[in-house]
Amino acid sequence: MIQMQDVHKKYPNGVTAVSGIDVKIDQGEFVYIVGPSGAGKSTFIKMIYREEKPSKGVILINGVDISRLKDKKVPLLRRNIGVVFQDFKLLPTLTVFENVAFALEVIEEQPNLIKKKVMETLDLVGLKHKARMLPTELSGGEQQRVSIARSIVNSPKIVIADEPTGNLDPETSWEIMSIFEEINARGATVVMATHNKEIVNTIKHRVIAIESGRIVRDEQRGEYGYES
Amino acid sequence: MKARTFRRHVRESFKSLGRNGWMTFASVSAVTVTLIIVGVFFVIMMNLNKVASTIEEDVEIRVHIDPVAKQQDQQVLRKKIEQIPEVKSIEFSSKEEELDNLIDSLGEEGKVFKPFEQDNPLNDVFIVKAKNPTDTMKAAKKIENLEYAAKVKYGQGSVEKLFKFIETSRNVGLVLIIGLLFTAMFLISNTIKITIVARRREIEIMKLVGATNTFIRWPFFLEGLWIGLLGSILPIALVSSAYYYAYDYLEPKLANHFIKILEFNPFVYQVACLLILMGALIGIWGSMMSMRKFLKV
Ligand SMILES: Nc1ncnc2c1ncn2[C@@H]1O[C@H](COP(=O)(O)OP(=O)(O)O)[C@@H](O)[C@H]1O
Ligand SMILES: [Mg+2]
C-alpha cells in the first residue's frame, strides 16, 4: 500500500514540483497518473522509490515512512519496487539475459535461482528466444520488455513506470500494456505516469490527474481528460 | 560477504581495468612516477637519518679542566655540570688517558708523542653528552661559564651546521613526499572519474534495483588497489636494484670515514613494503574519491 499525506516537494533550485498531495493506493491497484508536462508526475513517482525526498509530508510504503528512511535502508526499499522508464536504461554491453540477471546479481541472489527466475520472466515478456541478443539488436518495444523483465524479476509488490510507452509506436504500446496488465493480474500494484490518451481511455483503471503539483481529479475507471 | 560475491567484484574490477585500458595505464603511470620519486627520497632520507644519528651520538662536549684545579675543585665542577638540565652523562678522562688515546688514534705517527709521557702537556677532561644532541650548544655555553672549565670544545660551528642541514633536509623531504602523494591521488581520482562517468548508467541501474553502496563500491575499491599494486612494481625493482649497486659502491668508501649506511637487507625489503602500502593507499583513496558523488542516493 502506498499512502501520501500532505506531501510537498521543492527542488533545491526553488521550483515547487509537488505542493500538498494526499493519496492512498491499495495493494493490487492499477493507477494511471496523468496531467500536462511539468505538472509533477515524475516527481510524484520518484518520491515513491526515494529517488527524491519530499521536503514536507509523509510517504508510507506498506506502513513504513520512507521520507524518514535512512539512506542505508533505501536499497531494501528498492528491492520491493520495480521501476520502468521511457528510455529503458539497459546496459548496451550485456545480453538480454545478463541485463535482467543484473538486477538479481547485485542483490546477491543465488546463481541457480537467478537462471531460473530470469528465464521465467523472459518467458512472461515473450523474449525467451532472444535471451542471448544484445539490446542494440532489438526493437524499441523489445528493449522495453527487457527493461520490464528486469524490474519484475525480483517479484516486487509495487511496479512503477514513468511513461513506459513514450518512445514506442501505438501498436507496440499495446503489447507493453498487456504485460503490465499481466503483472497487475498477478497481484502487483502498478503506478504508471502516461500521456497515452488512447490507452487510458481503453484499458480502464483508476486515473489520478495532477496539475501544478496538486491532485485535481481522482476517479475509478476514469478518462484521460486532456487533448493528447 | 559471500565468496561468490567477492569473486564477482574481483572479476568486475579486472574487466574494468581492461575495458579502460588507457585510463588504467595513465593511473598506473601516475602511481609509478610518484613512488619512484618517493622511494628515492625515502632511501636518501633514511640514510641521512642514519648517518645523522650516528654523528649525533658522537657529538660530545670536551671540558678541559684548568690544570690549577685541585681534586676538590674538580669534584665541584663535576657536580655543577651534572646539575645542568640538558646534560645526560659525564665521564672523566685523565690527561694520561687522553695522551694514550691521541697516540693510538694517530697510529705510527703517534709514536713521536711518546716522549711527552713524562711531561704531559694535555689537560684532564670531562666528556659530557647532552640528553638531546641538539642541546649540545646550550649545555656547552652553560659549562663555559663555570669555574675551572678552561676550554670547552664540541666542534663549534660544524655541529650547528650539521644539525641545521639534517633538519632542513628532513623537512624538505617530508614536504616533498607528502606533496607528491597528494598529486598522485589527485591524478588517479581524476583518471578514474573519467571511467566512472562512462559507468554512470551501470551505477544508476545498480542503485535502482537495490544494490547497497558497499556492493557498488567494492569493484572500484579493488580497481584502485590493483592500480596501486601495479604501480608499485617498477619503483620497487628500480629502487632496490639502484640501492644494491649504490650500497656496493658507497659502503666501503664511507666505512673509511666511520660512516655507516643502512644495510641492503632488511632495508630494501622495508622500502618495498612501504612502497606497496603507499601504492595501495594512493590507488584506493583515488578510486574512492572519484566515485563519492556518484553514490549519493
Ligand atoms: N531535479 C530537478 N531539479 C529541479 N527542478 C526539477 C527537477 N525535476 C523536475 N523539476 C521541475 O519540477 C517540475 C515538475 O517536473 P516533473 O515532475 O518532471 O513533471 P512531469 O513529469 O509531470 O512532466 C517542473 O517544473 C520541472 O522543471
Ligand atoms: Mg515526467
Properties at a glance:
heterodimer, A: 228 residues, alpha/beta, Rossmann fold, six-stranded mixed beta sheet, four-stranded antiparallel beta sheet, 7 helices, 10 strands, 32% helix, globular, B: 297 residues, alpha+beta, Alpha-Beta Plaits, 2 domains, 9 helices, 71% helix, elongated, binds adenosine-5'-diphosphate, binds magnesium ion
**N→C terminal distance of chain B:** 22 Å
Ligand names: adenosine-5'-diphosphate, magnesium ion
Q: Looking at the structure, what is the overall shape of chain B?
A: elongated
The chain-level mean pLDDT of chain A equals 95
CATH architecture of chain A: 3-Layer(aba) Sandwich
Order of helices and strands of chain B: HHEHEHEHEHHHH
Rg of chain A, rounded, reads: 17 Å
Tell me the number of structural domains of chain B: 2
Radius of gyration of chain B: 30 Å
What is the subunit arrangement here? Answer: heterodimer
User: How much is the average pLDDT of chain B?
Assistant: 83
Low-confidence stretches of chain B are none
The count of domains of chain A is 1
Large-scale geometry of chain A: globular
The interface involving the most residues is between: A-B, 23 and 19 residues
Instruction: Indicate the percent of residues in helices of chain A.
Output: 25-40%
- Secondary-structure element string of chain A: EEEHEEHEHHHEHEHEE
| Biggest sheet, spatial arrangement of strands of chain B | 2-3-1-4
Write down the CATH class of chain A.
Alpha Beta
